[in-house]
Amino acid sequence: MIKNILETKEGRRLGLIGLALLCSIIVLGLLFIKMPLTHKKTTQSPTEKEKYAKQLEESAIKNGTVYQGIWISNRADKMQVEIKSNGSYEATRWLTTGYVTTDGKDMTFKDKNKGKVSFSFETQNGRTFLRYKSKKENILLFPDEETKKIILNQATENKAATEQVKSQKWLDVLQKGNWESEKNGDHYELAFNSDAYTQTYVSKEKLEKKVYQYRILNQEESDDQLSCNITLVRTDTDGSQEKIECTLTEKTNVYQLNAVSGTFLWLSSYQKEVSKVALTQTGVEKEEAKKITQTTVDENGNQVVVKEESIN
């Protein structure tokens, strides 16, 4: 009977409709089975690892709130960063907004524009501040104006002390002990005191001496601190003055003095043994002094190591 119905036109139409309904029921059934699985996946609870990571971050943010307040910088644009009680922050320059975390060694600003920017904690003279240093930036953050003033003033003093150490060393090299040279069996000497120098020429036949007054106009030490260019103003016996230059260089066992040919009488290169020069620090003999090393920062935020000689 069913076969007879399907052979008619109306029967074929009803068969197609029935097949379509069957397919629809199958598809709906599959979707119904899949839906609980999808729902279960989206509501899955976080793993223990995710919970631990979140706890660490929340703890770090809480630690950061200990440092809440307005931090001021050494930047030329006078950047300030306000750390709020909820661990968020806002900056006037460079940094923008975000939140801070700290592990006790570093404070990390998770910034909207710059991403993670970590400042290290440093302490000088009992004062704590933050430092960020890269190839292009060297930024300090201070918790208050007083700390900023103390740290940067100390840096200025240490910079002056460092320059004094360098200056005194090369004065000692220049002035302590005689500079000597030999040529063709003849002996030449160059001896400096605080305001005059004497040139001496000794041969088998004669002895010649010439004295000049001088003052130091400038000293410029090399980056490797192994040489120094000194500019002098020399006064002759007739009162005429001339600016001259020479370079002092420290080698393994000797110091060398070199100048352009014609700067000094007779020869332009001399040397003296390092062992004959007792270096001083602000007038105290090096052998009598104790070394004191202090690390601080200069006004630009750069680390400065000052080695001082002290009799204390």
UniProtKB/TrEMBL annotation:
<keyword id="KW-0472">Membrane</keyword>
<keyword id="KW-1133">Transmembrane helix</keyword>
<keyword id="KW-0812">Transmembrane</keyword>
<feature type="transmembrane region" description="Helical">
    <location>
        <begin position="14"/>
        <end position="33"/>
    </location>
</feature>
<protein>
    <submittedName>
        <fullName>Uncharacterized protein</fullName>
    </submittedName>
</protein>
